[in-house]
Design brief:
The chain is mainly α. The protein contains eight helices and two strands.
């Protein structure tokens, strides 16, 4: 346990030193990773495939966040997305189908192309088919059995987060 207590006491300095080492040895790290992938191709590909399969929603959120960051807009965490889906009872407000029969996707009620932001109060879950059908049209009150004002209040107040 002495190492653990030393680490906790000097955590920031050790992190900085590790980051500095990685920065100066990026070629060495890249070479090691390349050699590892050559030695272990099946296990590497299989583990990556399994991770992607288990984390589809995280990848989707990451891609949305990246595009939003490039445009200088807001951010949506995977926890935000899970909470929004829970607020909608894991139901597509257009066709009223529920998960796991469908895959819910992130939809911007006011599309980013029309000036909407990538923030929780502008997000609703739609199934892939409904989302493709909606395209870049603004939200038009598709969710009849949920008071939208209470949803905006919950999301805007920050109660969506733990």
């Amino acid at each position: 346990m002495p190492y653990r207590s030393y680490y906790l006491k000097h955590k920031e300095r050790l992190k900085a030193a590790h980051a500095e080492w990685r920065k100066h040895n990026s070629d060495r790290i890249a070479l090691y990773n390349l050699q590892y992938r050559k030695r272990n191709p099946p296990s590497q590909l299989e583990s990556r495939r399994l991770w992607h399969e288990r984390n589809k929603y995280r990848i989707r959120i990451y891609r949305h966040n990246r595009r939003a960051r490039l445009r200088g807009q807001g951010n949506l965490s995977p926890l935000d997305w899970q909470r929004i889906k829970a607020l909608y009872n894991y139901t597509c407000p257009e066709c009223l189908q529920t998960e796991p029969d469908i895959t819910l996707s992130v939809d911007h009620m006011i599309p980013i192309s029309k000036g909407g932001e990538h923030i929780p109060s502008n997000i609703q879950p739609l199934c892939l088919l409904c989302n493709m059908r909606k395209q870049d049209k603004a939200w038009c009150g598709w969710f009849p059995y949920l008071d939208r004002s209470s949803l905006f209040t919950i999301v805007a107040s920050g109660d969506i987060r733990e």
